[in-house]
Amino acid sequence: MRLKTGIFAVTIFCFGLGLASSGDTLKPSAVFVHPDARGKLPIIGNVAVVLTGVDQQSTRLLEDALALLLLAESVKVIYPSEKDVGKIRGQLPDPIEWAKKQGVNCLLTGTVVARCSHCAHGKSRCSNEGVRAVSLTLIDVPEDKVLLWALYEPTDTVTPTNFARSFISLIKENLKEEEKK
To answer: pLDDT tens digits, residue range 63-80?
Structure first.
């Protein structure tokens, strides 16, 4: 009986490790990092997060996750502000022009594409909800320059938080200052 209990416990532990590590490995399908991006992390300043997509619910959830994770990294997020997170928001007409008027240093923008053709056309919601692709871009607004771009094309369901964690990790990894040797 003890042997069976031990084997069961080891099996559950190993299965749990597999699940824990699988959620942490979301990698983009394609990445572009501007040569001038290195060292920009300390001077990011104010950031606005503005995404587009037909499925407004998925788009807003990803916007909120990105904003909250940036706030957790002590980055000042202008939009959505803390009071706007979790609330329905309208679409901004031209995110770049809006960001310039707000005095934002960086704009995190992108597009969320729904997996289901019904959802992709905004006609209805169904059981095949999910994201087919997410394109995220970090733009240096004063310089009008793309610092970082990533394309995610998941084959399985991915939560907005996992997309956001992966992209914020890419920002931190690629915009930090080079270590002195």
So the answer is: 889 999 998 988 888 876
CA distance 59 to 57: 5
The predicted pLDDT at position 9 comes to: 32
**Per-residue confidence (pLDDT) for residue 171, from 0 to 100:** 92
Average pLDDT estimate for 136-157: 92
pTM of the model: 0.75
Sheet holding 30-33, edge to edge: 30-33, 145-152, 131-140, 106-114, 46-52, 76-79
What's the token pair of residue 27? 């990698």
Buried b (16+ CB within 10 A) or exposed e, 142-164: eeeeebbbbbbebeeebebbbbb
Q: Mean pLDDT over residues 32-43, rounded?
A: 86
Counting other chains too, the contacts that 168-174 makes at CB distance below 8 Å and 24 or more residues apart are 168/66, 168/69, 168/70, 168/73, 170/28, 170/31, 171/41, 171/138, 172/41, 172/73, 174/33, 174/37, 174/38, 174/148
- Structure token pair of residue 51: 């995404």
Strand partners, 149: 32, 137
- Give, for 168, the enclosing helix (H) or strand (E): helix 160-175
